[in-house]
Amino acid sequence: MALLYSYEKLYSNAILIKRPSKAIKSPYIADIIIDNEEELAHCPSLGVSGLLNDEAKFLCSKNETSTRKSKYTVELTYLPSTLNTIVLTNTNPQFGNKLFASIIKNNIIDEYKNPLIVKSEKKYKDSRFDFYIKKANNKEEYIEVKSVVLCNFDKKEYPKSVKNPEIQRLDTYKKGAIFPDGFRKNKNVPISERAIKHLKTLVDCKKNNYDASLYFIVQRDDCDYFKPSDVDQFYSKELENTIQEGVNVKAISVKWTDKGECYFNKIIPVIV
User: Fold this and answer.
1) Is 172 in the same domain as 66?
2) Bridge partners, residue 79, by sequence
3) 180 and 56, same structural domain?
4) What are the DSSP calls for the chain, one per residue?
5) Do 237 and 111 belong to one domain?
6) Same domain for 128 and 201?
7) From first to last of its 272 residues, what are the pLDDT tens digits of the chain?
8) Where residue 233 sits, what CATH number does that domain have?
9) What is the pTM of this model?
10) Which of 1, 16, 138, 227 has fewest C-beta within 10 Å?
């Protein structure tokens, strides 16, 4: 497996006590225990879609600047994967872009080998995409990247005799990475209007003779496939239309280690 990223130093044996912190009432700040001392830690993505809860164990980096309110930053979180295993998941939503940039730099995907131009945060009309690439064959491509941390077992594969397989986390059933997820007061609107707009604009790119791609970076190595989340039918329908319009949609699974190293794992199927 190709190495995509490595932290300089991470601190282990950290446990989350409470988020938001008792001292600072921000959902981005948590009280933690590390080396038997109570400290403050920054949580880049809130509760990681509900995964970073009280008593969660994680790896963190140390903030060297004195201007930060928190001494540490939550980086990798331990999550139950199956009945007898755990998996490390990156908790920083910006890491999807970092990992995809490393994938391009290391020529891991054949289509993007030896590109002529690579730019990040490239504007297209009234939108901005994560990457613009002019490929070796002179074709221009706009790329959007989404970081994925959540997963679920495929309910279609549950045997009738199993009443709650999500809690039992049986090893024998396939697990899918899912996106999007988030809080919304009104279920008659998408979770993220911005994510919907990105899909529509990728289709527009395609219609204007650009190549267009959407990559889901699955921040864990225990998923068999990717699918849009059942909680947002707006995104599901728009993603299906995006694929039908010829946009390249792929999901890449990565593997994090307790040494803070991230490796390219594999491309997994996208199911809509």
Assistant:
1) no
2) 87
3) no
4) --EEEE-S--EEEEEEEESS-SSS--TTEEEEEETTEEEEEE-TTTTTTTTS-TT-EEEEEEP--TT-S-SEEEEEEEEEEETTEEEEEE--TTHHHHHHHHHHHTT-SGGGSS-SEEEEEEEETTEEEEEEEE-TTS-EEEEEEEEE-EEEE-GGG--TT-S-HHHHT-TTS-EEEEE-----S-TTS-S-HHHHHHHHHHHHHHHTT-EEEEEEEESSS--SEEEE-TT-HHHHHHHHHHHHTT-EEEEEEEEE-TTSEEEEEEEE-B--
5) yes
6) yes
7) 899 999 999 999 899 999 889 999 888 899 999 999 999 999 987 656 667 787 889 999 998 876 788 999 999 999 877 666 789 999 888 899 999 999 999 999 999 999 999 999 999 999 999 999 999 999 999 999 999 999 887 665 544 544 444 444 445 567 899 999 877 778 889 899 999 999 999 999 999 999 999 999 999 999 999 999 988 999 999 999 999 999 999 999 999 999 999 999 999 999 99
8) 3.40.1350.60
9) 0.90
10) 138
